[in-house]
Specification:
The protein is α/β, with parallel strands linked by helices. The protein is built from 8 helices and 8 strands, in the order βαβαβαβαββαβαβαα. It has one domain (3-212): Alpha-Beta Barrel (TIM Barrel), CATH 3.20.20.70. Helix 5 (151-161) links the parallel strand 6 and strand 7 (169-173). The model has no long low-confidence stretch (mean pLDDT 98). The structure holds 5-O-phosphono-D-xylulose (5SP) and fe (ii) ion. Residues 7, 9-10, 32, 34, 65, 67, 138, 140-145, 173-176, 193-197 line the site of 5-O-phosphono-D-xylulose (5SP). Substrate binds at residues 7, 65, 141-144, 173-175, 195-196.
Length: 213
């Protein structure tokens, strides 16, 4: 079954604990934590302490999406804070193979994300090493943006070059709602990130369910 990862970027900062409990009880599988540095993307969000506080509180998998330059500087602290999955951007890294090994050496699962204009073929020679590929379906930096339609074709393409039997997660992030989810799952997505669709909806259970059907 597809794993639903609510993006805490859209949660109520002043009621974070309540929002996390709510999505946990509503059937979410992972918590998606967007880390932004104001350099790789034009926005600044949370650091490793935020992950630590959440990890102490929840039993859900902490899925940390690093939208930062030189992520290798911060991988040890995010891993020590309890990040279960650490995803770095292909566009933010020079030695991707080395950085992926570093994440795994620190005991986390390794993910690689690509921006909307990056070809999935760029990942062909790292697919044997990663646990997750994240296809961004908006330009990273903000929640609440419109889904970029050709991401569906990218998922299909990615699935076609995925090594057999490795069970690499194919994750999509940005502008995902119920109608789009169906197409993404059909194309091969195994994990869906959703911020606005879940947190802007009073009935989180219904919102999460609508992504799974
Ligand atoms: O990484 C990002 C944005 O850069 C995402 O995780 C967004 O936070 C998803 O939010 P919605 O598009 O679902 O509102
Ligand atoms: Fe994200």
């Amino acid at each position: 079954m597809v794993k639903i990862a609510p993006s805490l970027l859209a949660a109520d900062l002043l009621n974070l604990q309540k929002d996390i409990e709510d999505v946990e009880e509503s059937g979410a599988h992972w918590l998606h934590i967007d880390v932004m540095d104001g350099h790789f993307v034009p926005n600044i969000t949370f650091g490793a302490d935020y992950v630590k506080a959440i990890k102490n509180f929840t039993s859900l998998t902490c899925d940390v999406h690093l939208m930062i330059k030189q992520p290798e500087k911060y991988i040890p602290s995010f891993a020590q804070s309890g990040a279960d999955i650490i995803t770095v951007h292909y566009e933010a890294v020079t030695h991707l193979h080395r950085v992926v090994q570093m994440i795994k050496d620190h005991g986390a699962k390794a993910g690689v994300a690509i921006n909307p204009a990056t070809n999935v073929e760029s990942l062909r020679y790292i697919l044997e090493e990663v646990d997750l590929v994240l296809v961004m379906s908006v330009n990273p930096g903000f929640g609440g943006q419109k889904f970029i339609t050709n991401s569906i074709e990218k998922i299909r393409h990615l699935k076609s070059i995925m090594p057999d039997k490795r069970g690499v997660e194919i994750q999509v992030d940005g502008g995902v709602n119920g109608d789009i989810a169906k197409k993404l799952i059909h194309a091969g997505a195994t994990s869906l990130v959703a911020g606005s669709h879940i947190f802007n909806n009073k009935d989180r259970k219904k919102a999460i369910k609508s992504l799974q059907n």
